[in-house]
Every structure is written in structure tokens, then in C-alpha cells.
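Quick one before lunch.
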Amino acid sequence: MAAQTVANTADSTVNTTGSPVDLGPAAALSCRECGHRVPLGPVFACEECFGPLEIAYDFSAYDTEELRKRIEAGPSNIWRYAPLLPVPADVATKPNINPGWTKLVKADNLARELGVTGGLYVKDDSGNPTHSFKDRVVAQAIEAARAFGFTTLSCSSTGNLAGAVGAAAARAGFRSCVFIPHDLEQGKVVMAAIYGGELVGIEGNYDDVNRFCSELIGDPAGEGWGFVNVNLRPYYAEGSKTLSYEICEQLGWQLPDQLVVPIASGSQLTKIDKGLQELIKLGLVEDKPYKIFGAQAEGCSPVSVAYKAGLDVVRPQKPNTIAKSLAIGNPADGPYVLDIARRTGGAVEDVNDEQIVDAIKLLARTEGIFAETAGGVTVGVTRKLIENGLLDPTKTTVVLNTGDGLKTLDAVAGTGLTATIRPNLESFREAGLA
Ligand SMILES: *Cc1c(COP(=O)(O)O)cnc(C)c1O
Ligand SMILES: [Zn+2]
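Model of the zinc ion complex:
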């Protein structure tokens, strides 16, 4: 891979200990707005226009068939796609929680209920090490943190990210100190705390937590900290591309026709699109149109509202929904999500809390998958999009479940025993169960 080494050396930076940074095919950071390029480093905003920075790659050395073989021979986790990610080639040997390669479930029972005839799949990311999609993004961020010489990992979180950072830091030997709204679900708080890092509740909502972290990052108190979704955000965000890679590989190296993706900050949705575009450019899938649909909860629907109003800008909201993992009222990637939904012919839709709970139960009852509230949002929105004619039931559709229902038990409180009986047959019959 001589071409990549050259590209890296030309553009690259050094970490705090003075050794060169090796992040594989990642060549530089490039501004999403103006294209200005800077060397790889723990920076996230363009110095020219304040636009978000993202990873620019050099994939020019790859031969399609060799790349496909290399991926297929790789480990059963996201590192099979290391040649397409900002990580060193030997990443699979590092202490990392190694997420990914989660199940793509052919959801025939759910398809029947929803009237989908073109093939319906659930990409079930509750199967990751800390039971949410966030393990994918944190796994990338921690490799960047290692490369840049950070020893403390931090983040602002709606819950799942806190757990993913805690676990990844524990395994990789980093200190972790993470910040969450003080009133999150107990399952998420325990999951975040159990790995032994510091966990701080902030009196406020996620947007307040995020603002606090931005202040901390500019203060001596936060010096030397790697904030996975702030100064490591360009690296973190790339983790979401692995969802696209896995979905297409699991479909036999084919693009699905339609994807339904949840929106919190919108990062995941934009990187899913980036991942699909890369597969097309690399020739790993045949080029054809696909539609990306965004899903929000009505109680935190800034992107959906902007989409329906035909706007290019997103007006912040104050979240109030049971889908707390998606409760970001001021989503950083909102405008890019609008762009992608419109460009691909998708849409952005929202469902209310009652519809979210109904959808959680529907998915559990039909497919044996217990989703967290974010999964209720995507399944609920899928149903709504079919009803209003925006999603074509005759096309191959992939719905994301990004988290585990065991972390959001409150949302389905009241679900429980069918009956309580004495331990004898008479009592069993009395209860009408015979
Ligand atoms: C974080 C999260 C998402 C998506 O987040 P983005 O900020 O839009 O990338 C989706 N589902 C769950 C369960 C999450 O925790
Ligand atoms: Zn710029």
C-alpha cells in the first residue's frame, strides 16, 4: 500500500509524543462546506468557515476484487472494513471492544403485518457489546484518541454513548469521565457506571450537557481530553459507515432500495449515506438509486418539522419524549440530513410516544426483537411512511434498530405477568389458561 503511505506522510501530523499518526487510509481532514484541508488531528471545525471537518481518504490503491476478498476474510466485527476506516491496518490486534457484524434479520412476520412484499430487514444493533449502535462510533474514536496521545476519554451523551465510552475506555486502559442529563433511564445510568469510569449527571437536557462540554474543552480542566463527539467527532462519525458496509455485504453486496434511520444529531444518517456512496465508487456494489428516510420522535422532531415545512435550516426544540437516546433538540447534522433525504427521494417523519410503544411491542411480538425506544421510532415511522405512501412496500427495505429494550424498560411499564396462580392445575384452569 505504498500510495497510501505517501499520501499520509505528505498530509499527516504527529501526536503529542512526536511519533507520526497512522490512521490507515485517512489522508487528511476536509471541510464539508468549503473543502479546505488540514492535517489529521483532534480538530473538528474548519478554520476558514467553521464548517464541520470530515475524513478525506486515499482509496486510490485499491483493486475492487482484492478489496472484497480482503474484507470477506476479515474478522467478524467492524475491523473487516479497516481498509475503509480511519484506523491503522493492525487495528484488530489492539484492545478494543470490537463491535459490529450484528444480525441483519429478515423480518417476514413484520413484513406481513406492515404489508411489505419487497423484503423487509431489521439491522439489529442491540447485539453490540454495550447493546447499542454507539459502540461502532466509540471504537473508531478510541483509535484516534490512541493515535493522538490522549489518555482521558469524555463525551456528552443521551445515555448509550456514555455506556459505550465507559466500556471501551475500560478495555483500552483509558480514564473516562462522561456527562449525561441527570434524569436518564436507570438502565442507561447503570450501564454507563458499571465499567468504573466517572459519570456526571448534569442538571439540564442533552443540549445543556453538550454546551457544558464545549466550555470544558476550551478550559485547562479539559486539556488533554479526547471528547469522542467533539474534538474526535470526525473520527467518531466514520463508525456509522460500517452499518452501510455490513448491510450491503449481508445482502450479498447489494444496495437496499430503502433505509429507515433514526436521527439524534443526524451524524449516523449522514455517514450511512457516505458509506453507501463509497461502496458505489469502489465498485463493491452495483450503482442504483436508494432512498434514505429519517425517523424522529414527535416530542423531539426538529428535522422532521423542517423537512415538512420545506426548510433548509433546522429550528431547535426543547425535547419531551420517551425516546431519550434521540432527544437532541439542536441536531448538528440536521441540515445535511434534510439534504440527503431530499436528494435520495426519501423523507423525514416522526411518531408520538404512544406509536413508539406500539411499535416496540409490534417488533417484539413479530420478530422476537426487543428494541429500545429508538427502535420503536424507526419501526413506527416505517409503518407511518407506508400508510402515507412515501415508502414503497414492494421494494427492499432495511429498518435500523439501534438499541436494546432492556435499557428503556420504563417505556413499556405495565407489560408483565398474564396471571398469578397458585402452584396447582385447578388454579391454572381458573385463570383460563388451559
Ligand atoms: C446515538 C443514537 C442514535 C443516532 O445518533 P446520531 O446522533 O443521529 O448519530 C440512534 N439510536 C440510538 C439508540 C442512539 O443511541
Ligand atoms: Zn470550511
